[in-house]
Design a protein that fits this description.
alpha+beta, binds O-methyl-L-tyrosine, hydrolase, about 40% helix, Neutral Protease, domain 2, about 850 residues, Immunoglobulin-like, globular, 31 strands, Peptidase_M1_pepN_C, binds zinc ion
Length: about 850
């Protein structure tokens, strides 16, 4: 966990196949809070002429080692290092038994086996198994596991779980109860899991297309059963969807999901035994928002889809992480989209890319989706590996089309099932299925950075011809040109879609050169050219389109993303002008009129209208600047919010009133229509609450806050009041806390909403809330809700006096040894100091060097700070 010497980097190019295979693993866990005994028997085979077997192990107390029934002697037969166990001169084939102990209660890093909130739970990805026993803890060593769990007190731990099928139970002569599990599928150690605890259990079954009856089990904290039904439905939907769209069925007779309160990440796809952060399982209407429900469905799907893309076909080494994560995020996104809100989902995914991934790609931790160098693997569970990885898979899908892409998937699975594969194996399958050469496309895997495309159009009325010149440039000078699919729309001035003969049927232009020209003929007037429909590539677009063109696109483009994006361009132009001129922000009348029309016409999808009204975040605008003018951005965004609130006041009220009945319709509670109505009501109220003197607003804020049956509406009202510092804020905050103090997941919302107030008072508030009983330093969800939320409150984090930095840094210091993964997540927003003015640069460099000098600096933090300061 901590370092005294600088941790060393590992390089992708140094990959070497393992010298040994471990065919079977027989594990026995004698569970105990502070001294759990692990007995691990492995059947090992030599693969080359390496004399010694070197196993990974960290923070283990070794008891004894036996090789083929011979008790080994320390120093003579083996050596224990700080992070390894070396067995000298082993035979070609042997059985090795290692006995060691671990302390689950002291494990606050939540990696390996830990005990929290009365539950024993493991987390092995990426390199946590080595904190359980000595092993070849790398994803290309696949073994068949048998696991036996022993407990002294069966009443305290009625559920003893591990991967695969339960094969036997019993009681030892000493009175220990035990349960044995066997997983027939060879797997890497990172997919191993054990859980022991007392839970409520929700059961159901699913029959696969192949006729297999699968028992589905959800284990949740006592009293929470009624909050697990939605997740169960989501699981069954995922299983069905994967059969229908990808032709993939589940392969065991049991699928278990355990919801735990202490977890660093979202969830984990352990074979047959998923472990979930409880916030991605538990949901009911009174305590969870629509977005929470949508997230539950997405994460349940994600972990389920890993069974094929991750578990059956795993990664050869951790540099290939995006092989499973990018592909599985793509599958998860398609699953969510197929549930019915495709356009809304796509726009939300693009927002994540633009605000967070572009930022990461422009900072010191920028890495390709298949990185070349890693110090701490836990630092690479990033928006780049996950979300950009999914965008790269999506580009392949765009280039090949659904049918050919699915043929490529079938090929990939046929060739790699049961193996540890590489990103190149995936690309090779796609090449073979499509007959296309993907050599240039492969650069998306090896080159970091965000390409920027520029578009120039030239129309000749005489020739009735449009000439479009598209060029690409990279923010990383060494990059070679990318293969960029650019889906386009051509519109007449009146907004009709145009299909000149040169436009491919799928409307996708392929940019492969630094600059390329495309011509379109038979056009009797200058058309509007709209590139990057559906955000067909993760690139920036240097936009020089006129106001009129943008307005045409907002009104007539077929693609919802293009319409949304054109409005975003208009917001962005207004913000940039206000910043450049230092003056008041103005919005084009045509934009205001268009928004008024969308708010009041009954035909537009209210969810899309809500998204049109969503202005860029301070962070999003900052990402567009090489040098970030913090206070000017803050001022411009505040003005934009107020200008819309004032300019649209009447229509916002009207829209709220129009959608309120649908938003509160009990019959249609979770229909697409009701969700969309609530989205728009919340968005309207988010603006209206800025009109602090309006009685009409006051009344609606109260009415919506009182809509007890729907957390979406209650929290929407609370957020509107708090973020606008409305006079109702304090009383609503108090009432909300009073109503929900028993439910930590709901109190996380209460913490987060206060940490994201765009006002200088938020720093003192966050500080004060760290002392509140709803907060707990040892629980990652609480830390993320309060401190990670604050770390994205851009202008407050970057307060000129350094108070925001001080707040975050003290939290990072506190978590450095207790939970380095969580500490490392909080650090990211501080790394890009080069993009701020001199005073902030100085402050940031100071806090980073301060952290750098901490005794016992965790490798997770070390890697990021070194990258940032070099
Ligand atoms: N594979 C999981 C994510 C995950 C990664 C690491 C973890 O602990 C360090 C936990 C979960 C997923 O993609 O869902
Ligand atoms: Zn995943």
């Amino acid at each position: 966990m901590t370092v005294t010497t600088a941790p060393t980097a590992r390089y992708r190019k140094d990959y070497k196949a393992p010298s040994f295979s471990i065919d079977t693993v027989d594990l026995h866990f004698y569970l105990d809070d502070t001294c759990t005994r692990v007995v691990n028997t492995m059947q090992v085979q030599k693969r080359d002429d390496e004399p010694d077997l070197v196993l990974d192990g960290e923070q283990l107390q070794l008891v004894q080692v036996t090789l083929d029934d011979r008790l080994l002697v320390a120093e003579q037969d083996y050596k224990v290092g700080r992070k390894s166990l070396t067995i000298y001169n082993v035979p070609a084939q042997f059985s090795l038994t290692i006995e060691n102990t671990i302390n689950p209660s002291a494990n606050t890093a939540l990696e390996g086996l830990y005990k929290s909130a009365g539950v024993f739970c493991s987390q092995c990805e990426a390199e946590g198994f080595r904190r359980i026993t000595y092993f070849l803890d790398r994803p290309d060593v696949l073994s068949v596991y048998t696991t036996t769990l022993y407990v002294a007190n069966k009443e305290e731990y009625p559920h003893l779980l591990s991967n695969g099928n339960k094969v036997d139970t019993g009681t030892t002569a000493e009175g220990l109860s035990w349960v044995r599990w066997h997983d027939p599928y060879p797997k890497p150690s990172y997919l191993f899991a054990v859980v022991a605890g007392d839970f409520d259990l929700l059961e159901d079954t699913y029959t696969t297309a192949e006729g297999r009856q699968v028992l589905l089990q959800f284990f949740v904290d006592k009293g929470n059963l009624n909050k697990a039904y939605f997740a169960m439905e989501a699981l069954k939907n995922s299983m069905r969807w994967d059969e229908q769209r990808f032709g993939l069925s589940y392969d065991l007779d049991i699928y278990m999901v355990v919801a735990v309160d202490f977890f660093n990440m979202g969830a984990m796809e352990n074979k047959g035994l998923n472990v979930f952060n409880s916030k991605f399982v538990l949901a009911d209407e009174a305590s969870a928002t629509d977005q929470d429900f949508i997230n539950v469905e997405a994460v349940i799907g994600h972990e389920y889809f890993h069974n094929w893309t991750g578990n059956r076909i795993t990664c050869r080494d951790w540099f290939q992480l995006s092989l499973k994560e990018g592909l599985t995020v793509f599958r998860e996104q398609e699953f969510s989209a197929d549930q019915g809100m495709r356009a809304v989902n796509r726009i939300q995914d693009v927002r994540i890319m633009r605000t967070h991934q572009f930022e990461e790609d422009a900072g010191p931790m920028a890495h390709a989706i298949r990185p070349d160098i890693v110090v701490e693997m836990n630092n690479f569970y990033t928006v780049t590996i996950y979300n950009k990885g999914a965008e790269v898979v999506r580009m392949l899908h765009t280039l090949l089309g659904e049918q050919t892409f699915q043929a490529g998937m079938r090929r990939y699975i046929a060739d790699n099932d049961g193996k540890a594969a590489t990103c190149n194996d995936f690309l090779q399958a796609m090449e073979q299925a499509s007959g296309r050469n993907l050599n240039q496309f492969k650069r998306w895997y090896s080159q970091a950075g965000t390409p920027e495309i520029s578009v120039q159009t030239d129309y000749s009325r005489r020739q009735r011809k449009l000439t479009v010149t598209i060029s690409q440039a990279s923010d990383k000078p060494a990059n070679a040109p990318f293969h960029i699919p650019i889906q386009v729309e051509l519109l007449s001035q009146q907004g009709e879609p145009l299909h000149p003969p040169e436009l491919p049927v799928n409307s996708v232009l392929e940019l492969t050169e630094p600059e390329q020209t495309f011509t379109f003929t038979g056009l009797k007037e200058a058309p509007v050219f709209a590139p990057l429909a559906n955000f067909s590539a993760p690139v920036k677009c240097n936009d020089t389109r006129s106001l009129d063109e943008l307005i045409t696109i907002t009104r007539f483009a077929q693609d919802a993303f293009l319409r949304w994006d054109a409005v975003q361009q208009l917001y962005s132009q207004a913000v940039h002008e206000a910043i450049a001129q230092g003056g008041a922000l103005t919005l084009p009348n045509a934009l205001i009129d268009g928004l008024k029309a969308s708010l009041t016409d009954g035909n537009s999808d209210p969810a899309l209208v809500a998204l049109l009204l969503q202005i860029p975040s301070e962070e999003g605008v900052a990402a567009e600047f090489k040098y970030v003018p913090v206070s000017a951005i803050h001022r411009a965004i505040t003005e934009l919010h107020e200008a819309l609130a004032r300019g649209l006041y009447t229509e916002l009220l009207q829209a709220w009133d129009m959608h309120w009945p649908q938003a509160t319709d009990k019959q249609a509670a979770f229909s697409k229509e009701a969700i969309a109505a609530r989205m728009l009501c919340n968005t309207c109220l988010g603006y209206l609450a800025a009109m602090t003197d309006s009685e009409a607003v006051h009344e609606r804020l109260q009415r919506q806050f009182a809509a007890e049956q729907s957390m979406t509406l209650v929290f929407g009202a609370l957020q509107a009041a708090v973020h606008n510092q409305h006079r109702l804020a304090e009383v609503q905050l108090a009432q909300f806390a009073n109503r929900w103090q028993h439910d930590p997941l709901v109190m996380d919302k209460w913490l987060a909403v206060q940490a994201t107030v765009r006002h200088a008072s938020s720093i003192a508030k966050v500080h004060e809330l760290t002392e509140h009983s709803a907060f707990d330093w040892s629980n990652p969800n609480r830390v993320y809700a309060l401190l990670a939320s604050f770390s994205h409150n851009f202008a407050q984090l970057h307060q000129a006096d350094g108070a925001g930095y001080a707040l975050l840094v003290s939290a990072i210091k506190r978590l450095n040894t207790a939970n380095p993964q969580v500490a490392s997540r909080l650090l990211s927003p501080l790394l890009n100091w080069r993009r701020f003015n001199d005073a902030r640069q100085g402050l940031l460099q100071q806090v980073l060097s301060d952290l750098r000098n901490m005794p016992d600096l965790a490798p997770d933090l070390f890697e990021k700070i070194e990258q940032s300061l070099r």
